[in-house]
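From the thread on structure requests for the teaching lab: each student submitted one protein with a one-line request. Submission from student K.M.:

"Model DinB-like domain-containing protein from Peribacillus deserti, C-alpha cells only."
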Amino acid sequence: MRNILEEYTRITDFFEQLKTTPEKLFFLAIGENKWSSAAIVAHFIYWDRYILESRLPGMLEGRDLEKSSVHVEEMNDRAKHYAHSGVSKEHLLDEAISWRMKSAQLLKDADFNKSFRIGEKPLTLKQFIEGDIEHDRHHMRQMEEHIKRNL
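Reply posted by the TA:
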C-alpha cells in the first residue's frame, strides 16, 4: 500500500511549496466569507492531530468506533483562531508537515484492508485514508487557485 501512503503524504510537499507564498497572501482570505490559506493549514493540523491521537489507534486494531463527538464547526473555529493568533507561516506549515508525517509513520506497516466501523458505517482503513486524500486535494485546489489569482 505504498501508493496510498505516498498520496497521503503528498500534501507535505504542497506545504513546503507554500513556504514561498508571500506572508500577506498566506494570511488573506481565499474569497469572500472564506478562510485564509493559514486557516486551512491550521485546519489540517487540528484534524490530523485528532485523527492520530483519537481515531487511528482504534482503526489500526479494527475496533468499532463511536461517531465522533467533536463539534466540527467548533474545531474549525479553533483552528482558524490559532492560524490568526500571531503564529508564523513557517511554524504553521512545519507543524502541519509534522502531524501528517506522524500519521504516515503510524500507517507505514498498517493493513489497509483492516475493517472497522464508525458508528454504523463500515469502512476499511484504505477507504478512510482515501477520503482524507480527497479532502486534501479539495483544499489544495482552493489554495492553489487563490494564490494564482493573487500573485
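TA comment: Helices lie at 2-18, 23-26, 37-61, 72-83, 89-107, 125-150. The chain has a mean pLDDT of 96.
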